[in-house]
Amino acid sequence: MHWYVDVLKKYAVFGGRARRQEYWMFTLFSVIVSIVLAIIDAVIGSSILGIIYSLAVLLPSLGVAVRRLHDTDRSGWWLLIALVPLIGAIVLIVFLASEGKRGPNQYGPDPKTADAF
To answer: Residue 103: which region, alpha, beta or left (left: phi > 0; alpha: psi -120 to 50)?
Structure first.
């Protein structure tokens, strides 16, 4: 749960780097919350909870994705590749799932070594 809360605390931080674990744990928890809210919305016959949640996590999701791309030594502008139908989403998932660059890069220190201390 702390991975989710940590991303929310840095909700508009687009600088720095994010580990794979931070990104994927946030994504997993966010999908679980979305599913639960979709069930609740279906029961009450509305979609307001899902919309509110989606808007609430939009900036944190973008921020952690940009930081994740920074960890792989890519610019955050690579998020726009998802606009290319099918292939863009696959390429973006590969980028987000690949291991980050060891050691410091132009976006900051290695988050794995920073967590070790």
So the answer is: left
CA-CA distance, 94 to 104, in Å (whole number)?
Answer: 21
Strand-pair partners of 105: 108
pLDDT digits (tens, 9 = 90+) for 46-58: 999 999 999 999 9
Long-range CB pairs of 29-36 (<8 Å, 24+ gap) are: 29/1, 29/3, 29/4, 30/4, 30/57, 30/61
Up-side HSE of residue 110: CA atoms within 13 Å toward CB?
10
Report the alpha-carbon distance of residue 41 to residue 2 in Å, rounded.
26
pLDDT of res. 60? 95
Q: What radius of gyration, in Å, describes the C-alpha atoms of the chain?
A: 15
